Amino acid sequence: MAQASQQLQSASEKLIESQLIKTAQVLEETLDEQISRLDNLNEDDLEVIRQRRIQQMKEESKQRSEWLAAGHGVYSELANEKDFFAACKTSTFGLVCHFYRESTLRCKIVDKHLAILAPKHIECRMVKIDAEKSPFLTKRLNVRVIPTIILVKNEQICDRIIGFDELGGHDEFSTAMLEWRLAVGKVIKYTGDLSLPPDASKSTSGLSYSSITKRRENKSVRSKCIGDNDDSD
């Protein structure tokens, strides 16, 4: 019995070793092809690549300047409801709006994390608005729980974060956790693993990318134009 088990383990190890060797060979061949392609480039080809890169850098610099001019890069407060609609029009890649109440302690926690994330993700404007001073907007967007974070993309409400349930269900969630949740809503550029939240080692009640998207489907959460009469959740 033990001998059969050892033989099976040995065969499995040999199979894995064989697969690793094949994978390494494929990667090596791909790398050789890329090196050969680069070696065969002439001066004209290199100049075209250089010009394309310069143009790309210019466009990125222009976009960055436009974002900064529109108020991106800092976490700020909107003075009134009209400013919210204006922000939706200018910040089409992504807008994060935190509906807060001065007396709610959890809003201070959201403030802390968004203040850190705003300069890190200048592609997305991050703002807050006093829910008590914006009753029309609060009612129109169906904001019932404070804090609520509304996510807007291309002038459409694409997602919302209500309370802390989707941030781990506790006050001690990390900035990375909120960053991940915003990435799930597709309002920021994200290079991490969307399939698993950063605070997965803590008690997150089975929270994952799939669980959030499933929740949205079950509740029929859909994108709506800011100009629509209401945004149901």
Automatic annotation (TrEMBL):
Residues 199-233 are annotated as: Disordered. Residues 80-164 form the Thioredoxin domain. Pfam families: Thioredoxin. InterPro entries: Thioredoxin-like_sf, Thioredoxin_domain. Residues 201-212 have a biased composition (Polar residues). It comes from the Eukaryota. CDD domains: Phd_like_TxnDC9. SUPFAM superfamilies: Thioredoxin-like. PANTHER family: THIOREDOXIN DOMAIN-CONTAINING PROTEIN 9 (PTHR21148). This is Thioredoxin domain-containing protein 9. It comes from Trichobilharzia regenti.
